[in-house]
Design a protein that fits this description.
The chain has 504 residues and is α+β, with helices and mostly antiparallel strands. Helices cover 42% and strands 22% of the residues. The chain has a six-stranded antiparallel beta sheet. It has a five-stranded antiparallel beta sheet with strand order 8-7-11-10-9, sandwiched between helices. Strands 12-13-14-16-15 form a five-stranded mixed beta sheet, with helices on one face.
Length: 504
């Protein structure tokens, strides 16, 4: 009775041995020679059955190193639970038409013991063959010897695989150890204030290796921290010790030629609510920091050039207006739009700590507050009152938002609530499920007679910004008390980079 197994699993098991098409090996050659002698046959093979072929790892008395699978005695043998014995292949309907029987080497007698993986999946067989029929088959001793040798084959295959896996594991370990020259380990006994580090820690942090090995009070190592980073790092250590949360900070060690490191640590054996020991690693990240600084410098340079382009275009527009007085109104409108785009760029461009905008973090409310500064009242109080839910904000949304609210504010300053001293605009932002709603409501301005007779460029630009660029919907209501505008956006529209990172 044959066993049941999945061919894909069988082939995967065979592949895991990494033995197919390898060079001859004495241990397997010795087994087939011994099998042929013990069973008194002229041929013996260790046959492994691949997808469409049988391949001989070792053979004696047979020339081919492989044959097609449909010619394989072994393909049948490996499916059987025990040893297969064929006294005369010419009389066995399973093999009578096989070209190994009808042609060279004219096999008559065959006996094969299956080779199985540790999981019991069939891999092939150890077989003995002869050109002379043998009605009596194998003696009990020969049968036992063949089965014992077949188990020896699988044992050596398992050993071969284990040695390969060990070698690969050793290679991975060696690669890891080679990489670990950039990682140092440290431990801080908080009770005795005894801080020790290994040789790599000493090298990375530029301290004496003997001192690091002996240990010293942590104050000795604190002196190696860059003065600008020391307060932050020490505060992070204190927080970690008080909370039990992991410590992780990037900081510099050394003086003018400081090295950047990534320090990680964790508090350990905490007793009575008090931390007893702190241990962790330092990783040399100087090269990475230099690359980051180079990229930041390039980004700031490109940003600076873009800012200059805005200034040049604005100046050219003003110059053209002086040459062509009839285009002055158009030029002034264009200049204000360019200025709005410049403010949007200034807000979201890469900054150093020194050049960072003073309006706050990169959020929608911070951006809008900066955008509406020119529309403050006579006493400096804002005429555009902002309230509601804030949102993360990035450069992909800045241009569209700047153009939308610049158009609304400009029109309100010409014709609406911002054209009079007591007028006011209420701008409300709110998150609503997977949507983000921005509502512009003008109050206290001149009465509104109704919608304009035609849609101007500004209205078209606002619609393009919301519907074309932000993927939202824009609605206008020309109420008697003032214009009402609602921009209904997908919640992710204002910070598409962050949304993409979350999905990833």
């Amino acid at each position: 009775m044959t066993e049941q197994w999945d061919e894909a699993d069988r082939l995967a098991a065979l592949s895991a041995y990494d033995i197919l098409d390898t060079q001859p090996e004495a241990v397997f050659d010795d087994i087939v020679i011994l099998a042929a002698r013990l069973c008194d046959t002229s041929m013996a093979v260790i046959s492994l059955v691949d997808g469409d072929r049988q391949w001989f790892k070792a053979r004696v008395g047979i020339d081919p190193i492989e044959t097609e699978r449909d010619l394989s005695f072994c393909d049948l043998t490996m499916r059987e639970p025990g040893t297969t014995v064929v006294p005369d292949a010419r009389l066995d309907p399973r093999f009578a038409d096989n070209t190994f029987v009808t042609g060279e080497p004219r096999v008559r007698f065959y006996a094969g013991a299956p080779l199985r993986s540790a999981e019991g999946l069939p891999l092939g067989s150890l077989s003995v063959l002869d050109a002379t029929a043998r009605p009596e088959g194998l003696t009990p001793l020969q049968l036992q010897a063949l089965e014992v040798l077949s188990r020896q084959v699988t044992t050596h295959m398992e050993l071969r695989r284990a040695l390969r896996e060990r070698r690969e594991s050793q290679e991975r370990l060696e690669r890891a150890l080679a990489a670990s020259v950039h990682v140092g380990a440290w431990e801080w006994d908080l009770i005795d204030d005894h801080f020790v580090g290994d040789e790599r820690f000493a090298r990375i942090c530029d301290v004496d290796p003997d001192l690091a090995a002996r240990g010293a009070p942590v104050s000795v190592y604190v002196q190696r921290l860059h003065p600008d980073d020391a307060p932050r790092v020490l505060a992070a250590y204190q927080t970690a010790m008080a909370s039990g949360e992991p410590f992780e900070e990037e900081y510099r060690v050394g003086g003018d030629d400081a090295r950047w490191v990534l320090g990680r640590g964790e508090v350990f054996a905490i007793h009575g609510g008090k931390a007893l020991s702190f241990a962790g690693t330092v990783v040399d990240i100087t090269a990475r920091k230099r690359d980051e600084q180079a990229r930041e410098l390039l980004s700031q340079e490109l940003s600076h050039r873009i800012k200059n382009i805005f200034a040049v275009v604005s100046a050219l527009t003003a110059l053209s207006a002086r040459q062509f007085p009839e285009a002055r109104a158009f030029a002034e409108t264009l200049r204000t739009r360019i200025a709005a785009l410049a403010r949007a760029h200034e807000f979201v461009r890469p900054h150093t700590e020194a050049s960072r905008p003073t309006v706050g973090a990169m959020t929608l409310h911070a951006f809008l507050t900066d955008l509406f500064k020119p529309y403050a009242g006579p006493d400096g109080a804002p005429q555009v009152v902002l309230s509601g839910d804030d949102a993360a904000f990035d450069d992909q949304a800045a241009t569209s938002v700047a153009l939308l609210f610049h158009e609304l504010a400009t029109n309100a300053a010409k014709y609406g609530a911002l054209s009079v001293e007591d007028g006011q605009v209420l701008l409300t932002t709110r998150r609503q499920g997977d949507r983000f709603i921005l509502s512009w409501e003008e109050n206290g301005g001149p009465p509104v007679a109704g919608p304009p007779d035609r849609s101007g460029f500004g209205s078209s630009l606002a619609a393009l910004s919301v519907e074309g660029q932000l993927g939202g919907k824009l609605e206008r209501l020309w109420a008697a008390g003032g214009l009402r505008v609602t921009a209904d956006l997908p919640a992710t529209a204002l910070s598409r980079r962050r949304a993409a990172q979350i999905v990833a």
